[in-house]
Design goal:
- The protein has five helices and seven strands; from the N terminus they run H-E-H-E-E-E-H-E-H-H-E-E.
- It is α/β, with parallel strands linked by helices.
- A seven-stranded mixed sheet has the order 3-2-1-4-5-7-6, sandwiched between helices.
- Strand 4, helix 3 and strand 5 form a beta-alpha-beta unit.
- The longest helix has about 35 residues.
Length: about 210
């Protein structure tokens, strides 16, 4: 590893720790909006595409049932209300009351895969909730360096020694892939760091940002 790459790694660790503290407040506000969008969450059957059981164990809400569809190693601590299905989230085929996907879209580099995710969401439920990193944010979500996520992959690899693992989305892309939804920006220090895309009941649309 070159000296510049070691400096980038050290910066990323320090910046990541600081960002984690700030994001605690963002998560709290996120769950308040989730509750507002889905006031009947305790009665809903949820499919989580690409998530984890840990996410739901720490959530301040408990749906009637959550099925986590993931290619990761089988998660620990399942429960009667929380199960894990090993498989490709982009190939899932089934029905539910609500689709949740936190952070999966930003891990998909290919536009075709991002389109497949949108198709699965629309085919699975009328209501959904997705969150993804915002491309409009000036700091790269992987390294916390300015504008690195806007550079070609080969240039990014020369800077920090690793290929991009996070591919943030623009608001226009989300509005196009999820028409009729509410797209809301989560702000840190006044800047949008992530987007939340929600489709509540037709008769319950929470306030727009």
């Amino acid at each position: 590893m070159s000296q510049p790459q070691r400096l980038v790694r050290a910066w990323s660790v320090r910046a990541g720790a600081a960002r984690t503290q700030v994001e605690a407040g963002v998560r709290a506000r996120r769950w308040l909006w989730f509750r507002e969008a889905f006031p009947d969450i305790e009665r809903l059957r949820v499919v989580d595409l690409g998530g984890s059981t840990e996410f739901w164990w720490h959530a301040p809400v408990r749906p009637a049932h959550v099925r986590v569809v993931t290619t990761a190693e089988r998660a620990a601590e399942p429960a009667p209300w929380l199960t894990v299905e090993a498989g490709d989230p982009l190939a899932w085929n089934g029905g539910c009351d609500l689709v949740v996907s936190d952070g999966l879209l930003e891990r998909l580099a290919a536009p075709t895969d991002r389109a497949r995710l949108a198709d699965v969401v629309h085919a699975s439920a009328e209501r959904y909730w997705l969150r993804t990193a915002a491309r409009e944010h000036p700091l790269d979500p992987q390294t916390s360096l300015p504008a690195v996520h806007l550079l070609p992959g080969r240039v990014r690899t020369r800077i920090d020694g690793s290929a991009p693992r996070v591919f943030p989305a623009r608001r226009a892309e989300l509005a196009s892939r999820f028409p009729g939804s509410v797209v809301r920006g989560e702000r840190v220090a006044g800047l949008v760091s992530s987007w939340v895309v929600a489709k509540p009941r037709a008769d319950h649309v929470p306030g727009r940002p």
